[in-house]
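Protein Record: Sequence and Backbone Structure Tokens
======================================================
Tokens: labelled as protein backbone structure tokens, with as many entries as the chain has residues.
Task: work out the structure tokens from the sequence, keeping to the layout shown below.
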Amino acid sequence: MIVTQITHHDLDGYGASTVVGLFADVGRIVHVPRYSDVGPVVEAELERLKQARDSEMLVITDLGLEAVAVKFIRSMAALNRRRDEGVRHRLIVLDHHASSVDQMRQAGLAPVAPEGGGALAFDLQDPGTTVLIDETRCATRMAYEHRALYATREADPARAGDIEALVAAIDAVDLWKKDRPAFAGGHALDEMFWDNVSTLVPVGHPWHDRFVGELLLSVAALLREGLSPAEVERRVGALRARAADAFLSGGPDDDRTLTTRMRMARALARSPELFRPLSDGTLMSFGLDAGTFQRVSDLIMETGRARRVLNVQRVGTLSFRSNNETALEGARKFRGGGHKDAAGGKLPSGSAYSLADAAAQVDPVLNPPPPDPSASPFAALRNWKG
């Protein structure tokens, strides 16, 4: 069964995806940084699942169930009721926001608490839909404790202690339980996460989630050994290099004399997943940090893969790089400016939520179709035979 996970783009969201990935083969993970992106993401997922011929599993963690997400859950349950029993999907929602309970109630969905307390459950009149909300646990802990809902295998027994340490650290810091012994380590884990989540292997690259997950578990192992936050910080560089080695060693152009970022940039420059070709051959990426984009765009142009490269951020800013003095030409079409080979602009809509969304906004402006002669007001006169 194909498994997809939609999760929040923070430590708890990545902790939840790391845990789920230990117990099931997740084919695709969608990270959602902003609540404003939830609507487009779940709407696209609903349309995709409507067309899916076979059963799939969708796991949603730590998303915060605003009205648009509640509508999606109800639509998924209704979709399942219309599908034949053998091809119904599985939807598992694990959340811990108090506002999510309020939103579910406002939609007419009353929670049911199991005997003895625990997560609140909601009945969607569909056995394939499970919605659990527990304010006392972070999403990472919920993913671990409720793994029977989605698990297709057991995790590696050798990592059992690391998983427990990861869950405890994230639970303490995400719920801000400063009195817990695990809080200081969770704080150090959070700092490491934000320092590394997008700087080496960006979202969208097939290595991204495995790389971040390995870092999280490696730091959790240090916490389990009792290392202090300062000692953890000093070791993160070595952990990061070790994780990168697992992906990079033996690559066609790997050079171990370079820094980890330099080595990784070479692999990213070859990635077909990170860059979408626009109609004029410009290669466009989405959400790369400035340092990564600078390194990778230079390597792409150096190898001749493209002569102009563009990066779009979620907030709608555009960065153009070129080696044929066309960067500024492109930026000017987006109310921007800069140098001939390095310039920037802004999306007309103000933001984007995915690579596909950004491409749909950029390409028509960057490469407008030629005017249709038949649309000219003089065309009717030319064709008139009266």
